[in-house]
Amino acid sequence: MSPTFRAALWMIGSIGSFSTMAVAGRELSARFDTFEVMLYRSVIGVIIVLSLAGATGAWRQINTRNFGLQLLRNLVHFTGQNLWFLAVSLIPLAQVFALEFTSPLWVIVLSIFLLGERLTATRALAGVMGFIGILIVARPDIGNLNTGILAAAGCAVFFALTNVLTKRLTRTQGITTILFYLTTLQLLFGLIAAGYDGDIASPTAETMPFLLLVGACGLLAHYCLTNALSLAPATVVVPIDFVRLPAIAVVGMLLYAEALDIWVFVGAGIIFAGNYLNIWFETRKAHPK
């Protein structure tokens, strides 16, 4: 198989994992609040990461360097992930995914201030296109601007900040260390946030499969995406990732009778175009003919 075809297969795994996690999060929202979902997700994540690190010997890579940055990164990611789980419980799944696609455009803005990167005309145009796409997807007015939309838009910003901080961490830390702190610190945050009132809902035989799906699919989605990006350029991977939107729209229609809103697709298409324009330009700049 060609590298591009293998990357496409990995992206199918990523799309399936993200979609499954969204459905599982929606199913859990009736019994658990977002902090409790994150708590149990982190428990499962810790078990998976430590098991793999122990089996491969990668646990030796874990260290305490840059702990302050690890702490900040995971506070930001914990906030973003809680907003994401809140959004999937309140608004159509396609709308959540469409607004989540603005995260790479927020990275452009944040990288200017946090990584000292330059704002080019192409990046500025991509950012403007993303903002227009947000307005079309959310159509903010008194009737439409609700908690779910604000949560979905907010999670994209926090995910972007997470990506920027992760980029800084990868300069000195390996993936095992990053995943170790991702799961253990967020387990601690989840325990504090879910248990502050002394009442943490316990899993049942009915909810346990969904909790396992949330925990496993969260790690699996990013693992598949990382493998895809290692095999093919972002200009190939990102358009495949965009298939997540129609896929989750169909899932939402079949499982929850969510209407297929044409304006969500129009806005998401503009957001995607902004993302792709920036990626295409950066790729051409890095590899000129």
Automatic annotation (TrEMBL):
Keywords: Membrane, Transmembrane, Transmembrane helix
Main localization, broad class: membrane
Residue span, EamA domain: 7-138, 147-278
Species of provenance: Sulfitobacter faviae
InterPro entries, per the entry: EamA_dom, EmrE-like
Name recorded for this polypeptide: DMT family transporter
Cell compartment(s), UniProt: Membrane
Annotated transmembrane regions: 38-59, 71-91, 122-139, 145-166, 178-196, 208-229, 262-281
Mode of membrane association: Multi-pass membrane protein
Family, per entry: Belongs to the drug/metabolite transporter (DMT) superfamily. 10 TMS drug/metabolite exporter (DME) (TC 2.A.7.3) family.
